[in-house]
Amino acid sequence: MSTHNYRRSEALRALWPWLPLWTVVALIAIFSHGPMPLYSTRTLAVAWEMWNGHHWLVPHINGEPYSEKVPLLFWLIHAGWLVFGVSDVWPRVLEVIFGAIQLVQVSVLARRLFPERPWVAKAAPWMLMALSYAFLFGLQIMYEVLLVDCVLGALLCLTPKASRAEPRWLLFGLLIGAGLLTKGPVMLLHIAFPWLLGPIWNDWAREHRGRWYTRGVLSILLGLAMLVAWAIPAGFSGGDAYRHRLFFTQTAGRVVKGVQTDQKLQSHPRWIGWYLISLPMLLFPFSAWPRAWVALGTLRKPLDNGLRFALCWVIPSFVVFSLISGKQWYYLLPEFAGWMLLLAGAIAVLREQRAQLADNYWLGSWPLGIGSVLFAILLFALPYLTQVHKLHGEWIEGAAPYSRTFSVMFLLLGCLLLVRGRGEMRRVALAGLVGVLALNTLFTLTLWHKYDLSPASAMISSAQAGHHAVAIQGNYEGQFHFAGRLSQPITELWNAEALQDFARQHPDGLIITHPDQVEPSALRYGLLVQPFRSSWLEIWPAATLADLRAGRTPAEPTQAPTVFPAPTTVQYGQQP
């Protein structure tokens, strides 16, 4: 075998079995139910409106330019639609591809950063793919998983190879530009500190500080030039209001609390410690693995370059993101790879320098195993507990018919985690991956019908096809546009006067409402009633709803409303 073929064979063997395992599990999970409102449906709505209206430069939602997102993900979705046709299959497959790339990237990153500890390169992708929150969010058609690929690709450009110590500056700039076109200026926060603190972890940067920073600045300018090359023509194409939001308010409104904007932004302000208290959940199952905490707690100087890289990345980034007003768990998704590199490196040091702690059973996965067994017992007892009214709740009552089947799965996972001996990290990773797949499947069987907007989308699509105007009370997030392949915007109604005006102008139109409970009149006069998340969604004839809100008695409908679930199970004032 030639040297080239041997290296290729070694690279392929390094992907076994974690990459095919994760790919199969991800495909099963992402196709177990439809696109999730409001995350996936909003992304698909924007992609659809750009495609349907030939808006290739400016993202649109509900007939208006959409300044909150940049276009790279939409362009990639369009590329697949050009080949395979318009459906939600390609966008979901695309997300799985992004996730697989991220796992390969973290493996390569670990191999370069920890050349003397090959175990880290083997462990890092296992650990990253097992993170429960990251896996579930990776099932959403969103921008962050593509952003992770851009961030990891850019950081790979900074890390030394055996054949080349100097970073690949041109590729570094191109990947920064791709990240900027994926998620905007936040891309710079994800890569800033590994670059700025380069001399701490990178020998070449320490010896060539001037070139490191000069060429790094030029690469960042290249990335910004790519963003500007899109933003300037997009700004002129989208109009004055869009241009103002694009260049100022849509970023500043998230970073600084209280910035005034001309339209509501998805800014999600949280208190400064919100990420800190969320870390145990974000890093589960490894946050419940005692050996992980012991490995981090016993780290001592001198640290190798890989550990210094991980610390230079995750700690300052975490602090800065905590200081920013707008917070969502998925904003930290690129740093999950850094946390797993840090954890894998710390465990590798523990295995080498403190063998007794590395082999101690009481620092092993038994807490996770006991937790899984207890959860299995709860699932097994769930039908009895609901029958005797000891436990209540929509999820509990919905899960009861399936819970005993799933209890067997969690019992087996618990037993796997209680086993002693080698391969503990892989057992934790495998249990985490299979466990989150089981929970996703249980969600599909029990609660997905409360998120499935297909009935409402079909009715709205039929109404627009018949040239009937459609409005919604409150904010519209694009949740019906892709599923219904809508070609017209939905009017937002913010007060009672707007509702009456819409009904006068469009007496044959439809109005969508989103009450906390089913209104009794909806089961008499409405067109459609269905559960949506923890509340309900109702579709009314516009004139009928206007009469009811004005205190008038409308004419009796010619047919009863369509009700989900069956009418016999819906009572007045009932929660979904």
Automatic annotation (TrEMBL):
Residues 553-576 are annotated as: Disordered. It comes from the Bacteria. Signal peptide: none annotated. Residues 70-230 form the Glycosyltransferase RgtA/B/C/D-like domain. Pfam families: PMT_2 (PF13231). It is found in: Cell membrane. Its main location: membrane. InterPro entries: LipidA_mod_glycosyltrf_83 (IPR050297), RgtA/B/C-like (IPR038731). The chain crosses the membrane at residues 15-32, 169-197, 217-236, 272-294, 330-350, 362-382, 402-419, 428-448. It is a multi-pass membrane protein. Keywords: Cell membrane, Glycosyltransferase, Membrane, Transferase, Transmembrane, Transmembrane helix. The keyword Transmembrane helix applies. This is Glycosyltransferase family 39 protein.
